[in-house]
C-alpha cells in the first residue's frame, strides 16, 4: 500500500506531488469525432504525478466477480479488503452518480496513467498517477483491467480483448436497448441512411450526443448490429402485422439499399 501526504505528515502541507490536491494540468475535453468525454492534459505532465482522487459512492460487493452486478463503467473495485468482514466482500468506488474529474478517464490497452490505492492512517483512497510523459493535448488513459464493461477493439497487440473481437459488448450490445433507444436510432438511420463505417461513426456520434443523462454510450458497431438484428427479424407467428419498429427498420434498410444502387 502506498502512503500519501496530508497536512499533518508533509512539510508542504500535503500540497506536494504526493498529495491529494486535484491537478490543474488536466481538464475535461470532448472528442469532436466521437463526442466522447475524456481527461486531457492542459500542459506536458511528467511520469509519477498524482492527478486527482477517484471519488464516488462506496459499495460493498461480493468477492466473487460472478456475484457482483455488471460494471456500467464507473465502478472501481479495491484490492484493499474491509477490516473483519462478516462475509467475503470487496469495497468499491462507484462514480456513476457522483465523483471527481477522474470518473471521465477512459480505458486504453496502452495507457499513460494508472489507478493506485494509497492510505494515510486508517483512510484509504484511490488516485490516478501518470506512468509516462503526457504531452499537452494528449488524452489521459488508464487500463481498467480485464473486468471491462465493453469489448475493446483498439487493434493493439496488447489489447485485452484481442481474442473476443466478434462478441457483443456486454452493456452496449443488441439485447439491452430500450424502445426509446431504438426509436432514436431509427430516426437517425432514416435521416442519414448510412452506407459505410464513416457514416455509421457520424451517426453514433449524433446518437451519443443526444442521449439522456445516465444512458450508456453506444459504439457504431453496436448500433449497426442492433439495426441488422431489427431488419432481419421475421414477423412473429400468429401476429397479423409486423411490430412498428421492425417495419421501420426494414423500410430503412430498403432505403439504404436503394441509395447504394443509385
Automatic annotation (TrEMBL):
Task: List the Pfam families hit by this protein, alphabetically.
Answer: DUF6818 (PF20681), SET (PF00856)
Coiled-coil spans in chain: none
Q: Where is the SET domain?
A: 16-145
Q: Which domain of life is it from?
A: Eukaryota
Which PANTHER family does this chain map to?
Answer: MYB-LIKE DOMAIN-CONTAINING PROTEIN, SET DOMAIN-CONTAINING PROTEIN
Q: What is this protein called?
A: SET domain-containing protein
Q: Which organism is it from?
A: Phytophthora nicotianae CJ01A1
Amino acid at each position: 500500500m502506498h502512503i500519501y501526504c496530508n497536512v499533518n505528515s508533509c512539510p508542504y502541507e500535503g500540497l506536494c506531488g504526493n498529495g491529494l490536491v486535484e491537478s490543474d494540468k488536466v481538464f475535461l475535453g470532448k472528442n469532436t469525432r466521437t463526442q466522447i468525454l475524456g481527461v486531457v492534459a492542459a500542459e506536458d505532465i511528467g511520469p509519477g504525478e498524482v492527478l486527482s482522487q477517484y471519488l464516488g459512492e462506496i459499495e460493498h460487493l461480493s468477492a466473487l466477480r460472478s456475484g457482483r452486478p455488471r460494471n456500467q463503467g464507473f465502478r472501481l473495485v479495491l484490492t484493499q479488503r474491509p477490516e473483519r468482514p462478516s462475509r467475503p466482500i470487496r469495497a468499491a468506488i462507484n462514480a456513476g452518480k457522483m465523483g471527481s474529474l477522474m470518473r471521465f478517464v477512459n480505458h486504453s490497452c496502452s495507457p499513460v496513467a494508472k489507478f493506485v490505492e494509497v492510505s494515510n492512517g486508517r483512510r484509504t483512497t484511490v488516485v490516478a498517477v501518470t506512468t509516462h510523459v503526457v504531452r499537452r493535448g494528449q488524452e489521459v488513459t488508464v487500463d481498467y483491467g480485464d473486468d471491462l464493461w465493453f469489448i475493446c477493439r483498439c487493434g493493439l497487440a496488447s489489447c485485452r480483448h484481442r481474442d473476443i473481437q466478434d462478441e457483443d459488448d456486454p452493456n452496449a450490445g443488441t439485447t439491452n436497448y430500450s424502445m426509446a433507444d431504438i426509436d432514436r436510432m431509427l430516426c437517425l438511420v432514416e435521416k442519414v441512411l448510412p452506407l459505410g463505417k464513416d457514416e455509421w461513426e457520424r451517426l453514433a456520434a449524433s446518437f451519443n450526443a443526444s442521449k439522456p443523462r445516465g444512458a450508456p454510450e453506444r459504439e457504431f458497431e453496436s448500433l449497426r448490429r442492433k439495426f441488422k438484428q431489427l431488419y432481419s427479424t421475421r414477423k412473429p407467428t400468429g401476429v397479423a402485422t409486423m411490430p412498428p419498429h421492425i417495419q421501420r427498420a426494414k423500410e430503412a434498410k430498403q432505403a439504404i439499399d436503394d441509395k447504394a444502387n443509385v
